[in-house]
Amino acid sequence: MLPFTKRAAATALALLLAAGTAGAQTVLRSSDTHPDGYPTVEAVKYFGELVKERTEGRYTVEVYHSAQLGQEADTIEQVRTGVIDLNRTSLGPWNGLIPATTVPSLPYIFRSVEHARTVMNGPIGDEILAAFEPHGVVGLAFYDGGARSFYNTKKPIAAAADLEGMKFRVMQSDIFVDMVAALGASATPMPYGEVYSGLETGVIDGAENNFPSYDTAKHAEVAKYYALDEHLIVPEVLVMSKLSFDRLSPEDQAVVRQAAKDSVARQWELWDAQVAKSRAAVEASGSTITTPDKAAFIAAMEPVYAKHVTDPALKALVERIRAVE
Ligand code: GTR
């Protein structure tokens, strides 16, 4: 028998040789703020399976869910500087950096979730994905983030006017601050991970999100009044660090792009199921869901458009999105 050290060295050598024949393996690290099992987390895992399969195992994807790598705004910096390879976020936090992302983040820009899916997965979506590239990231695909509505700890909302004077948490983007102000309420931008305690301690009266986030982040435990005003349909986006992307061969780059696109249908399917499940869960746990008339909400958004859509290219983008059937 070989002495221990020699045996260990022999094993290490054998492993190295095996790795040499099998080819090098690279694990791509991806961030997500949501818990394991959430539709975006599962869609990125599926994307990873496709990448693994199509690169014969040379590349795999590890999803760090539950904000293990930090809150969304911080992970955006990490992916730009190549600290992480991939990131799945809302489009909202990109608004300050990439003007084209502001248009799909405007209140009531989309007529419905279906309209958003069609636009973001067609030529207009591809144009917006391409706008990421000068900022250190490659836009890969858009996922569905459903419709966001206001919820609060204080009272049922029967009409837009009922929001006046209340304080709502929003994502970190000026559009959302102005959107809340236009309704006579005040906005506090804050990371997603701080919303639960903000609601519980009364630092904020409410927040706004889709049913899956309202449910899985447990905001429904503390904010029982959900008003189905559907003011935002902000797409989710999957991006890759340009530094990581540029290390891939052209063939592997094509694989990554295609795998991301191929994961979209899976995300939609998971998303639809999660919306139904989360809505049922919050109803069962005692949330009151009201359906205020949207007309007053839509009319109130005029100053938001006036302030944020001044550039001719963005104005044209608004019109082109509206024209999509
Ligand atoms: C969710 C979205 C997250 C995050 C969160 C938020 O709907 O999926 O990426 O942006 O909203 O409100 O911060």
Automatic annotation (TrEMBL):
The keyword Cell inner membrane does not apply. InterPro entries: DctP_fam (IPR018389), TRAP_DctP (IPR004682), TRAP_DctP_sf (IPR038404). GO terms for biological process: transmembrane transport. GO terms for cellular component: outer membrane-bounded periplasmic space. The keyword Signal applies. Residues 1-24 form the signal peptide. One of its GO terms (molecular function) is carbohydrate binding. Keywords: Receptor, Signal. Pfam families: DctP (PF03480). PANTHER family: DICARBOXYLATE-BINDING PERIPLASMIC PROTEIN, PTHR33376. This is Tripartite ATP-independent transporter DctP family solute receptor. It comes from Prosthecomicrobium pneumaticum.
